[in-house]
Design goal:
By secondary structure, the chain is an alpha/beta fold. The protein has a domain of 168 residues: Rossmann fold. 24% of the residues lie in helices and 23% in strands. It has six helices and nine strands. The strands form two sheets. It has a seven-stranded mixed beta sheet. A two-stranded antiparallel ribbon has the order 1-2. Strand 7 and strand 8 form a beta hairpin. Helix 1 crosses helix 3. It is globular and about 50 Å long. The structure holds S-adenosyl-L-homocysteine (SAH). The site of S-adenosyl-L-homocysteine (SAH) has 25 residues, from strand 2, helix 4 and strand 4.
Length: 243
Amino acid sequence: MPPRMPNWRALNWLRPSPEPPIHEAGDPFAMARERMVEEQIVARGVHDERVLAALRAVPRHAFLPEHLRHEAYLDTPLPIGSHQTISQPYIVALMTEVLGLEGDERVLEVGTGSGYQAAVLSLLAHEVFPIERHAELATNARQVLARLHCSNVEVVIGDGTFGLAGHAPYNGIIVTAGAPHVPQPLLDQLAPGGTLVLPVGEATSQMLEVWRRTSAGLERKEVTPVCFVPLIGEHGWRDDVCA
Ligand code: SAH
């Protein structure tokens, strides 16, 4: 079977609109983005065509402060304010691929940050619920996602270590901040057949873990060492972890 392509209906910014869309023929970053996908992502072994198409489509520069836009397609995390970072493009691609999305899923993202990961997910899943503890980041992410017409995304402000019971269960849960252990509410909100991907370990270095709810119970797999900002909350680190 050919791979199912992303949810192009959500790619409204590719359509003609009264306001000039961010991603258009004259996008000055189009080539840099293409190089990012080939050199940082395909070269390191991410081959899911839907994931690659989403990474090619989402204008990463739109999620960065003006003065950092020219660095948007570099092989690195970047600061987004409130002492937080937008993740390295390869890690976004890898974690997204692990979720194995086909287009029908409901996905929870803990740690919205800039909103970039949420935009990528919005092209690959049916509904996306990103949750962010910093109101300022959440508000900014909401605005960028709205400008890009990501209409299947609803950004929530709060402590994502509790998950988001109101919309549970989730087929996919992605945590983009490092947890000291797997928050139990996230496991509880994982649907049968669902996948949870998250960094677990110390405050400054973690192992990327994948949890799957199978008919035989929960399965856990380790993927690769990673380095995320801490997950702060009731089922995460205390907020003086970096003090
Ligand atoms: N996915 C983001 C990058 C995340 S950086 C992007 O694409 O830009 C990690 C984010 O997790 C930070 O914004 C931080 O504020 C947030 N965070 C940390 N602990 C959290 C919690 N308990 N609930 C929700 N967000 C949290």
